[in-house]
Write a structure and sequence with these properties.
Length: 339
């Protein structure tokens, strides 16, 4: 499917609102500061996490990260819930690591605990070189984040790699005003996630590849990827997604698509003949790439009303109301869930 040389890379960019959840202390019991100066509590983020008592699931603990590049391989264990990691600007607070080859462990950040928040942080895997010409055989799986837990919110964060940038294995996740960069299946896994902003987001792609590879496995599986108010543009060509599992589900809603989208739109991978099980849909999208002439015949022809429960975040990822347990000083930035 790919040429030996791949030119360029994808960018998935959410325009950031003017409002930012900068300082907040309400409902936060403890604040830990990480930085390279003598006034910080710790010099590494992992040591700050290690200092949090096991079994924490009652009180929110905030880790403030001072500007800097943190070369770390960070793991938040399952028994350390309710952690907030906050930088002051995603371009100034960078967590990076050079690691590749294993989808569930390579990379700078692994989340195994429920109730997690990240604000204004860049997560970057530096293994694959982001160059104008990429030798395909040199590219390896290199996630920037690995998500294996339920109930996470990422606000104004950046995720940068080349292949499998966001390893969204499991759980409900809300990506708000975020930037995601990659080239091959760079948003993938069996997660149940919404990518949304109050205004719009932009995807720029520069090689033939796939934006998503979603892994829903049955009719009862509630997972899927939903993109709301996005814009796709760039050079080269791209598929909107391919079926990572037999019941793969991806929806683009009110998205502006430039001519970079291949006419087929979607790829069944190894599930040819089982396409009726997929939920691949484009709803109320605009732009040259939204012209469905030449689309695969098995793409779902849904209306917004048909999939209202999926494109509405408060039903798709907040059905049990878990976001009400986030710090009250942050709920201002989650209007979709409390209207």
């Amino acid at each position: 499917m790919f040429n030996n040389c791949l030119t360029g890379f994808f960018l998935f960019f959410f325009f950031v609102n003017e409002l930012e959840p900068r300082g907040f202390d309400k409902d936060v019991e403890t604040t830990i500061v990480v930085g390279n100066d003598g006034e910080a509590d710790f010099k590494t983020i992992q040591k700050a996490i290690d200092s949090i008592p096991s079994g924490n699931n009652m009180s929110w603990i905030k880790i403030e990260i001072n500007p800097g590049i943190y070369n770390e391989k960070i793991v938040i264990p399952m028994d350390k819930q309710k952690i907030i990691m906050q930088g002051n600007n995603a371009s100034e607070v960078i967590i990076q690591y050079n690691d590749a080859g294993i989808s569930n462990s390579s990379g700078p950040f692994t989340l195994n605990a429920e109730y997690f928040i990240a604000i204004d942080i860049t997560f970057m895997n530096t293994y694959n070189k982001r160059t104008p010409i990429i030798q395909y055989e040199q590219i390896k799986v290199a996630p920037s984040v690995i998500l294996t837990a339920d109930k996470a919110w990422f606000y104004s964060c950046r995720f940068i790699s080349v292949q499998d940038t966001v390893a969204d294995f499991f759980g409900r996740h809300y990506f708000q005003n975020c930037y995601i960069e990659g080239a091959i299946d760079f948003i993938w896994g069996g997660g149940q996630s919404v990518f949304q902003v109050n205004y719009k987001c932009v995807l720029i792609q520069m090689l033939t590849g796939y934006i998503t590879a979603q892994g829903r496995q049955s009719e009862e599986d509630t997972s899927g990827f939903v993109f709301v108010n996005c814009e796709i543009k760039g050079s080269g060509k791209t598929f909107l997604g391919r079926a990572y599992r037999a019941y793969s589900r991806v929806i683009f809603y009110q998205t502006i698509m430039s001519s970079v989208i291949v006419h087929q739109g979607w790829d069944p991978m190894k599930y040819q003949g089982e396409e009726d099980n997929f939920t691949f849909a484009e709803i109320d999208c605009t732009g040259k790439g939204a012209n469905k002439t030449g689309r695969v015949k098995w793409e779902k022809n849904y209306t917004a009303q048909d999939v209202e429960s999926l494109i509405e975040p408060k039903t798709f990822i907040n059905g049990d109301g878990w976001m009400a347990s986030l710090p009250s000083s942050l709920t201002t930035f989650l209007p979709y869930f409390f209207e």
